[in-house]
Design goal:
Length: 183
C-alpha cells in the first residue's frame, strides 16, 4: 500500500494554557518534547486536567493535529472556526486523521516525524468558545459508539521545522492496526 500524502494548512503555538493558539509562519518540533514554545512541551503530561490526576504520566499529547476539512464541516453547521482557534498546533488537509490507527507515522516537511497516539477528547471549553461546538465535535456511529472529531494527538519522534504548505506523508504501522482511543 502506498503512503497517503497531505499538506500542512497552518501551524499554531501558545506559550500559555490558552484555548486558542496563534498562527505563525513556522513551528519547531523537538524530539520527545513537542512544539518549541508551546505550553504543552515536555516529556510528562502538561494538560492541566491530566497534571491534576498524575503529573508523572508520559506526555502523549505533545502535538495536536486537526484536519481543515473539519472546519468546513463545522461552517456548514453555522460555526465559524479557523486554524488554531480550537487549540491545534498543526492544521492538515488531505489526510483522514480520525481514521488513522494508533502508531501511524506522519513525516512532515523536511525532517519532522510525529507518531499518532490517540484522539483528542472534546472538552467543555469548546462551548465557551462557541455555544454548541462540543456537541458538534461528538457523534455516534451506527452501533452507537462515540466518535470524537476534535483531532488527534501525537508525540515527536524526530524534530524539525513545520510550515504551511509542507507535505505530510502517512506511514501505517504493521498489522493488526489498533483504532485510536482517547488520550
Amino acid at each position: 500500500m502506498s503512503p497517503s500524502i497531505g499538506e500542512v494548512v497552518a501551524v499554531s503555538v501558545s506559550d500559555t494554557h490558552t484555548f486558542s493558539k496563534q498562527n505563525t509562519d513556522a513551528i519547531h518540533l523537538v524530539k520527545g518534547l513537542g512544539v518549541q514554545g508551546d505550553a504543552h512541551l515536555g516529556e510528562t503530561v502538561k494538560h492541566r486536567s491530566r497534571v491534576a490526576q498524575d503529573p508523572t504520566q508520559p506526555n502523549l499529547r505533545q502535538v495536536h493535529l486537526i484536519h481543515a476539512e473539519l472546519f468546513e464541516e463545522l461552517q456548514d453547521s453555522g460555526f465559524q472556526v479557523s486554524p488554531g482557534q480550537i487549540g491545534e498546533n498543526i492544521t492538515t488537509r488531505g489526510i483522514s486523521l480520525l481514521t488513522l490507527p494508533t502508531g501511524a507515522i506522519l513525516r512532515i516537511g523536511e525532517s519532522a516525524i510525529v507518531e499518532i497516539t490517540g484522539l483528542r477528547n472534546p472538552c467543555p471549553q469548546l462551548n465557551r468558545f462557541q455555544k454548541g461546538l462540543m456537541d458538534a465535535l461528538l457523534d455516534h456511529d451506527a452501533e452507537g459508539n462515540l466518535i470524537r472529531k476534535a483531532g488527534v494527538m501525537g508525540i515527536v519522534l524526530a524534530g524539525g521545522e513545520v510550515r504551511p504548505d509542507d507535505p505530510i506523508q502517512v506511514e501505517l504501522p504493521a498489522l493488526p492496526h489498533r483504532p485510536l482511543e482517547r488520550v
